[in-house]
Structures are given as structure tokens and as C-alpha cells.
Specification:
The chain crosses the membrane at residues 265-283, 295-315. This protein has 321 residues and is of the alpha+beta class. The chain has 9 helices and 7 strands.
Length: 321
């Protein structure tokens, strides 16, 4: 599957034309072309590489998944690798969509392994700013990066909401410790993956800002994207620390609750030990004061009530029960 667009002097003149017409359309020096390849075969990508003079190493990186976000410079073009992300709400799992792009003087070629990332979001951004289309490939690359970085922001915001829910459950009256532990580990895993995606984007955007395709007109827009990358990175680091703090707090709360239970059990054990000791004394098989006398029974009963009641009042006043 492929999508195409052609701009001339910043005006959209054609879209949806066959990829075979790419070389012919690029003969006009005033033309800027975008080509999107979704799930291309090696032959499809090699054909475009031959037409645009793309480096074989860049083509190899575009065909192999799980590349690190980066910007590689070659003599006639640049190769961009990035990841758009999306957080699955019910599971809290982070879903990534790998993107590759070739930036030449007149063309932007994007490559996707599948359609998990909607390129319609990117084209909509281009259509929202037609006054910038005259900036050529720098304009097209900005729309792509802006959509990718916005997906990072949306994922961080969604993770922040999940973490707030986890914080609310932390101090509930009857927390489910196993469920909280599972959710905390899932969020931590998603944040680690998000950090791997977001952190290298600082270098990518910074390097692209120094590219010759980014002129002075587009520089403020790239600076805005760079600021968003920094904010997303800082937010991700903050959330990682928050999840670690939640986990530590959960363990401390469990330890405090266990100590409270042990304190109460120990207090009741001390109270129960009193009647056990007294009845044991009056249960001897040898004569003792009050042996075989009614008053001996009443003395033991009163002693049990007084001592047990005194211990209960003492423990209650000290908040041991």
C-alpha cells in the first residue's frame, strides 16, 4: 500500500498518483513529493532507493525492525527512525509503531511495517498549515515529527492518569495488594519502554534542526517540537520515580499493617494469659489458700476480671488494641 502527494511552490497539486511516476515528477526542481509505503517488500523499497539514490545501509535499516530512534546523514539524504506510541487503556500496555523516513532535497519517503500508525493524522497537520508548505521537505518532516511527539505526550498523559488511580487505591480501606503490584509492574514496564522511545528523540530533533532542509521559517516550529520532546522526557522520568515511590509506599503500608496486627495479637495474648495463669494456679492438686472453699472460686474470678480488665484498659489507652 502506498500514498503519495506532490506540492509545487507550496501548493498541493496532486495526490494518490502511482509511485512509478516519482522520477518524472521530481524532474521539476520546484516540486516536493511525499511517498508513504505501508508494508513494502524489499523489491519495492529497492526500486525507490534506486530512483532517489538512497544508501543501501539506510534501506537495510528501513527493512529491519526494532531500530533505535536516530537520524543518520548521508551524502544526498538523511534517514530518520522513530516510534509512535499508544497506551492500551484496559491493560496499561504500551503499543509502539515503528516509522522510517528518507529525507532528500525534494522528497520525503515514509516507511511503515504496518498500519498501526495512522498517517491521516500527519496529512491532517499538513492541511492545517498550508501557508508553511512552501518550505518543502522541512515542512513535511515537521508534520511527521509533530505527530510522533504528540503520541508520546498522549501516552505520558494516559500513564499519569493510571498512576493517579493507583495512588488512590494505595490508601483505600481494603486494597488488593496483588492487583496493585501487578498494575505497578505493568506501568513500570510501559514507562521503561516509553523512555527508550522518547529519550533518543532529543538527539533526533536537535540534529534535524541543523539540517539544510530546515530553514529559518521552520526553525520556530522545530524548536516547539524540541521543547515538547524535553517535556515528555522529563515527565517520563518523573513518572518512573513516582511508580517506584508508590511501590515503596505500598511495602511500607503492608509492613505497618503487619506490625499493627502483631501488636494487637500480642496485646490480646497478654490479656488471655492472665486467666490462664490464675486458673492454672487454682487448678493444682495440692492444698492452697481457698482450697475446696467457695471463696477461693470467687477470689480467682475477681482476680481474672480485675487483672484482665486492667490490662485491656492499659493497652487501649496506649493504642495497642
Amino acid at each position: 500500500m502506498s500514498s503519495t502527494r506532490m506540492y509545487r511552490h507550496g501548493v498541493l497539486e496532486a495526490e494518490g498518483f502511482p509511485v512509478d511516476e516519482l522520477s518524472e515528477r521530481l524532474r521539476d526542481q520546484d516540486v516536493t513529493v511525499w511517498v508513504d509505503l505501508c508494508g513494502p517488500s524489499q523489491a519495492d523499497l529497492v526500486e525507490i532507493a534506486d530512483e532517489l539514490g538512497l544508501h543501501e545501509l539506510a534501506v537495510e535499516d528501513a527493512l529491519h525492525p526494532h531500530e533505535r530512534p536516530k537520524l543518520d546523514r548521508y551524502d544526498t539524504h538523511c534517514f530518520l527512525s522513530a516510534y509512535a506510541v499508544r497506551l492500551d487503556g484496559p491493560s496499561g500496555e504500551l503499543v509502539t509503531s515503528e516509522l522510517s523516513a528518507f529525507l532528500t532535497r525534494q522528497a520525503l519517503v515514509t516507511v511503515r511495517a504496518d498500519d498501526r500508525f495512522d498517517m491521516g493524522v500527519v496529512t491532517a497537520r499538513w492541511d492545517e498549515s498550508p501557508q508553511l508548505a512552501g518550505n518543502g521537505v522541512g515542512f513535511l518532516a515537521h508534520g511527521l515529527l509533530d505527530a510522533v511527539v504528540d503520541s508520546h505526550f498522549e501516552a505520558v498523559q494516559a500513564l499519569d492518569d493510571h498512576i493517579e488511580e493507583l495512588e488512590d487505591l494505595l490508601f483505600s480501606d481494603h486494597p488488593d495488594s496483588r492487583d496493585m503490584q501487578r498494575r505497578a509492574l505493568e506501568l513500570r514496564k510501559s514507562l521503561v519502554l516509553l523512555r527508550r522511545v522518547v529519550l533518543p528523540m532529543r538527539e533526533v530533533v536537535n540534529a534535524l534542526m541543523r539540517h539544510e532542509q530546515v530553514n529559518d521559517s521552520m526553525m520556530p516550529y522545530y524548536q516547539d517540537v524540541y521543547d515538547h520532546v524535553l517535556r515528555a522526557t522529563e515527565w517520563t522520568e518523573s513518572l518512573r520515580e513516582t511508580v517506584a515511590t508508590i511501590r515503596e509506599t505500598q511495602l511500607n503500608i503492608q509492613s505497618n499493617r503487619l506490625n499493627l496486627i502483631m501488636k494487637k495479637v500480642t496485646g490480646w495474648a497478654a490479656i488471655i494469659a492472665v486467666p490462664t495463669a490464675i486458673t492454672g494456679f487454682y487448678g493444682q492438686n495440692v492444698p492452697y489458700p481457698g482450697y475446696d472453699q467457695p471463696w477461693g472460686f470467687w477470689v480467682s474470678t475477681v482476680a481474672i476480671l480485675l487483672v484482665s480488665g486492667g490490662l485491656y484498659a492499659l493497652f487501649k489507652r496506649r493504642d495497642w488494641l
